[in-house]
Design the sequence.
């Protein structure tokens, strides 16, 4: 178990300063983010909540380097990623970030195992013995053993999302971004998937940014940041999750 | 339904550009062919020759090559229609949900098919008449031949009607797979997910295997019969070749993907090429159709190349006078040039088909490409994935075409010349090299635009709602 106190003096996993993003110009200008400051601490699950149109998806795109802010900066573990070129950003996503999407987004042409190992293949990296062990552990914890040779089309939604979680965690990234990970699942499956994601994250001290509008999902987070109209409206430590997990 | 079809047509007009080009190329070919035959027989008749038989022979030969080009065009166009229909599967599901029958959905393909057919045919007829008039003028001023432009109503009506019928047919074949989709089935599949069915396909494959087997048996019979009665052997072999070809076309989704995998072993073991191979395997139907389009042209070229060279060798083995030999060689070389020119139209159609299939697949794989970009695929990796897909299709088509063409050519020559035949396979390495180079150029050129598009898909696409 990794404790968060170890990282007290290390820089936050992600820090955003003066982040703004506008779309369009003139009368049709949309201010998706307005001068927003946010630090994401290491080893925690941080939920970002808000209604649709509140700016939470835009914020996720900025934090993950999927899009450039109009102004302001984003640092990943102290490194400014705002000015990086496309290839550098891509390499950063490949090695230091993991993604879990609402629509699962597994590659239909690859089977479950190939999907999990995709980030290593993209980097042209051999999977070393340690990593191999970690991947096998993930497969077992997520109950994917009997499904490894199945294509995404042969898996249920919950199974697909568990493959996606394994893919996101396999590289031990600095941050895992989960965008409405239960948006396409029924409630029982949602609970399973969220429990697994939260448990794995806690055990590994994995930093997770969970974007959701689902209160049930946010309950698993140690901290809940609420956005409205492109600003932080509310920022609270979750008493239940913090009580049991962080202030050990 | 028609209103919906018309609106969808306007929205996806750009995606049909390649199909229009294909129809135009084949229609141009048809007009030029009719013009050339008319001009030639007209000139001969003016000199008092009896042209009845010559005209019939020219029409049959021209008709065969036109038929090959039309077949390739139908395969290419139906591929485009089925990929576009697969992209509309969500809308089709909604239509089915509110009560549209499969037949009604299929009928909307008529709108698209007619539009593509009319635009392509008009363009092609215009181009064909223009080129034909220029050709006749050149023959008059340069070669001083007394030819006139053989104007007739048929010159417009026949190609137009043919183009329209073939395009509409291709459209209906293309949409058939999607139109039967049940509303719930369609709602479950993602926009990129092509429906892979079912009993119909299995039956087609069975028919393909049966026909192909029968064809191969007839090819063997042709060789055996040809040994005793040479010309009859060629007849038997001809039908054997025809049946084998139909069998290959029908069973292509089963035969060709493994062949692609085999060719894919030549690709480097990096991420992008391996993904390319997996994509092609995954989308077996689309892949096999695109490979087939390339393969048909290469088969025809190889078949005549092999048969021609074997004819030369067979004559050499029993004709003594050297002058005769040279004449034979000259005649066969002339025939091969004519074959190359006539087949080039099919090859152009296949090239357009490959480029457009790749382009449409990029549009429909946006989420997939966005996901790859998000989890660490660079823009240039995306481009090289598309390049590998293109090269694998062109390369597999070339390999398959050379193999099948060699078989047909060898059987043809052996069954035609019987015991006088020289039985060694004559496959000039220069020809093989030329086919390989052609496939390479085709693969690279076809992937340029789609590859650039693929590399520009923003990773944020992966975050879009379903």
Sequence:
């Amino acid at each position: 178990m990794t404790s968060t106190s170890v990282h007290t003096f290390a820089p936050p996993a992600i820090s955003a300063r003066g982040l703004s993003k506008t779309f369009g110009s003139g009368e049709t200008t949309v201010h998706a983010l307005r001068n927003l400051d946010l630090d994401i601490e290491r080893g925690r699950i941080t939920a970002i909540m808000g209604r649709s149109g509140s700016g939470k998806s835009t914020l996720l795109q900025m934090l993950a380097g999927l899009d450039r802010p109009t102004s302001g900066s984003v640092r990943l573990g102290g490194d400014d990623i705002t000015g990086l070129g496309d290839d550098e950003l891509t390499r950063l996503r490949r090695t230091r970030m993991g993604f879990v999407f609402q629509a699962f987004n597994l590659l239909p042409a690859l089977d479950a195992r190939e999907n999990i190992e995709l980030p290593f293949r993209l980097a042209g990296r051999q999977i070393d013995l340690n990593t191999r062990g970690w991947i096998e552990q993930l497969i077992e914890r997520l109950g994917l053993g009997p499904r490894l040779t199945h294509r995404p089309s042969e898996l249920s939604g919950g199974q697909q999302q568990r493959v996606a979680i394994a893919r996101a965690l396999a590289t031990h990234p600095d941050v895992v971004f989960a965008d409405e990970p239960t948006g396409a699942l029924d409630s029982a499956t949602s609970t399973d998937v969220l429990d697994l994601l939260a448990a794995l994250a806690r055990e590994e001290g994995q930093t997770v940014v969970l974007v959701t509008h689902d209160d049930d999902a946010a309950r698993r987070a140690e901290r809940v940041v609420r956005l409205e109209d492109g600003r932080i409206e509310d920022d609270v430590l979750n008493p239940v999750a913090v009580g049991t997990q962080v202030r050990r | 339904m028609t209103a919906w079809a018309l609106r969808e047509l306007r929205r996806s007009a750009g995606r049909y550009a390649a199909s229009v080009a294909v129809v135009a190329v084949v229609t141009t070919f048809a007009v030029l062919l009719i013009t050339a035959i008319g001009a030639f027989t007209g000139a001969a008749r003016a000199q008092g020759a009896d042209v009845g038989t010559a005209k019939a022979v020219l029409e049959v030969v021209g008709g065969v090559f036109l038929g090959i080009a039309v077949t390739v065009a139908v395969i290419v166009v139906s591929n485009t229609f089925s990929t576009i229909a697969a992209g509309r599967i969500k809308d089709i599901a909604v239509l089915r949900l509110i009560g549209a029958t499969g037949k009604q959905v299929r009928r909307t393909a008529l709108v698209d098919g007619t539009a593509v057919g009319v635009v392509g045919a008009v363009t092609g007829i215009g181009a064909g008449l223009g080129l034909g008039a220029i050709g006749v003028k050149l023959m008059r001023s340069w070669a001083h031949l007394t030819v006139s432009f053989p104007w007739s109503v048929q010159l417009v009506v026949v190609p137009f009607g043919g183009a329209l019928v073939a395009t509409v047919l291709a459209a209906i074949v293309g949409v058939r797979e999607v139109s039967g989709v049940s509303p719930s089935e369609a709602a479950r599949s993602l926009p990129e997910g092509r429906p892979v069915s079912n009993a119909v396909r299995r039956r087609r494959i069975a028919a393909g295997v049966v026909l192909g087997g029968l064809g191969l048996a007839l090819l063997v019979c042709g060789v055996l019969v040809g040994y005793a009665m040479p010309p009859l052997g060629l007849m038997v072999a001809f039908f054997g070749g025809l049946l084998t070809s139909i069998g290959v076309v029908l069973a292509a989704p089963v035969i060709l993907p493994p062949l692609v995998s085999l060719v894919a072993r030549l690709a480097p073991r990096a991420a992008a090429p391996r993904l390319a191979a997996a994509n092609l395997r995954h989308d077996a139907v689309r892949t096999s159709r695109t490979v087939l389009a390339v393969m048909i042209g290469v088969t025809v070229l190889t078949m005549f190349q092999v048969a021609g060279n074997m004819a030369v060798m067979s004559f050499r083995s029993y004709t003594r006078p050297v002058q005769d030999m040279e004449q034979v060689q000259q005649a066969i070389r002339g025939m091969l040039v004519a074959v190359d020119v006539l087949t080039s139209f099919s090859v152009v159609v296949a090239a357009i088909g490959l480029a457009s299939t790749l382009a449409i697949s990029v549009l429909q794989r946006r989420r997939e490409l966005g996901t790859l970009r998000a989890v660490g695929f660079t823009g240039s990796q995306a481009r090289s994935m598309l390049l590998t897909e293109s090269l694998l299709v062109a390369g597999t088509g070339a390999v398959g075409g050379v193999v099948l063409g060699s078989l047909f050519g060898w059987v043809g020559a052996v069954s035609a010349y019987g015991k006088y035949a020289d039985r060694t396979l004559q496959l000039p390495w220069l020809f093989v090299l030329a086919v390989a180079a052609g496939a390479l150029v085709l693969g690279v050129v076809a992937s340029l635009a789609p590859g650039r598009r693929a590399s520009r898909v923003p990773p944020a696409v992966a975050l879009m709602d379903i």
